[in-house]
Amino acid sequence: MGDAGESAARRLSADELARNFADIHVPLDRERSLIEASRCYFCYDAPCQQACPTSIDIPGFIRKISTDNVKGAAVTILNENIMGGACARVCPVEVLCEQACVRESQEARPIQIGALQRYATDWLFERKLQPFTRAPSTGKRVAVVGAGPAGLACAHRLAMRGHDVTVYEARPKAGGLNEYGIAAYKVPDDFAQAEVAFILGIGGIKIEFGKALGRDISLSNLRRDFDAVFLGMGLAGVNALALEGEDMPGVMDAVGYIERLRQTADKGVLEIGRRVVVIGGGNTAIDIAVQAKRLGAEDVTIVYRRGPDHMGATWHEQELAQTNGVTIKHWARPLRIVAHQDRLKEVEFEYTQLDEQGRLMSTGDRFSLLADMLFKAIGQSFVPSPLGNGAAEPLELANGRIQVNADRKTSLANVWAGGDCVPGEDLTVSAIQDGKLAAESIDRNLRSA
Asked: Model pTM?
């Protein structure tokens, strides 16, 4: 397979790989957490809480940390966001709660809300405490499709309310993007599975693995057999470049490669090119670029068709890429994939700019980048076909995803949906909020039936 097939083990030692994929953030200890918590103004109107998609009482949990009530802080967090441990690691706090922090506007140094949230939730998990209990059984049964953040959040809240939940998951593990789609250095040490175990610890939740909607189960049968259904299957499609040759050896889907990387214990067996090009501007592009560099790639370049302010990845993520030796080239789009002996050799690009109406246009100027590996990271898409398998009624879509109301209710009776499969922000924290809101709506519906 040439250079692109060379494994990282031939360039980096096991110790180097272990260091490269260790926890990227040094957690706060008790002393530093107390100092950081003491900086909080405990604002009455709490702009940080308003900026949090799950509405965590941020001043409340920070005050508890400041008085050494760490368990109380963790419970405050998890009451609103049952996956607060993961969100403390992967949430873009720099554009949410920390950006809204009064300290940010005054000093350009916000309270480290994410780090404090991690301190509290880690404290609880390390002691294997389970602060949540089930309500008496209602005898109602709910089906949840997808064991990602939306599905797990929905399942946990429904179990708390006393309903019996069956989760159908197509993959062999639960966790969704937290398990399969996020950079390994953000959630190391099998954290995603530890969090899943914590969620299941409340009881009343059964997960059936290897069960995909449209293949092993159908929406019509779930509606028939359960009192309510929640759809949280995420995005199954991967956008293509629509260029000739993108199926040649050396051209890969970033999402699929990250999934394989996350599930490979020995990172040294993974093939990685010496010259890697990534096309895209979101978090997936950053994640694959940084991980390629940490696997042993010598040159990694992200190419994005617009400017840095247009990128889906936050400035924090862009800076992370650059400090890891990744080059980011803006204002260019791919034109042609060039092969040599049926394998990727280089990628030709054309410079872009905005016209007077603000529309993206090509300039005619071109350049090429040598590459022995190309990653496509230009987004994912919702695949609606599994919903219609045997369905007597159509499910209404909006902008290519499942249409829902404020309670995450779909157009079909007793069917709710949330997460990436509905319109909105494709963030873990937003998916969790969808699952929570849907669960509360389902609970109200089942109790009034």
From this structure: 0.95
- Distance of alpha carbon 25 from alpha carbon 256, whole angstroms: 25
Interatomic CA distance for residues 120 and 5, integer angstroms: 43
**DSSP for 239-264, written as a single string:** -----TTTTSTTEEEHHHHHHHHHH-
Q: What share of the chain is helix, strand, coil (3-state, %, to 5)?
A: 40, 20, 40
Q: What is the mean pLDDT of residues 169-183?
A: 97
Burial class (CB in 10 A: 0-12, 13-18, 19+), 275: buried
Q: Mean pLDDT across the stretch 244-256?
A: 94
Spatial separation of the C-alpha atoms in residues 288 and 377, rounded to whole Å: 8
User: CA–CA separation, 203 vs 201, rounded Å?
Assistant: 5
Provide the pLDDT for residue 388.
76
Domains of the chain, start order: 3-21+239-379 (3.50.50.60), 39-126 (1.10.1060.10), 141-236+382-448 (3.50.50.60)
Instruction: Provide the pairing of β-strand 397-398 with 360-370.
Output: unpaired
Q: Hunting for tokens 């880690």 — which residue is that?
A: 122
Q: What is the pLDDT of residues 322-363, one digit of tens each?
A: 999 999 999 999 999 999 998 999 999 999 999 999 999 999
Tokens 């054309």 found at: 350
3-state secondary structure of 293: helix
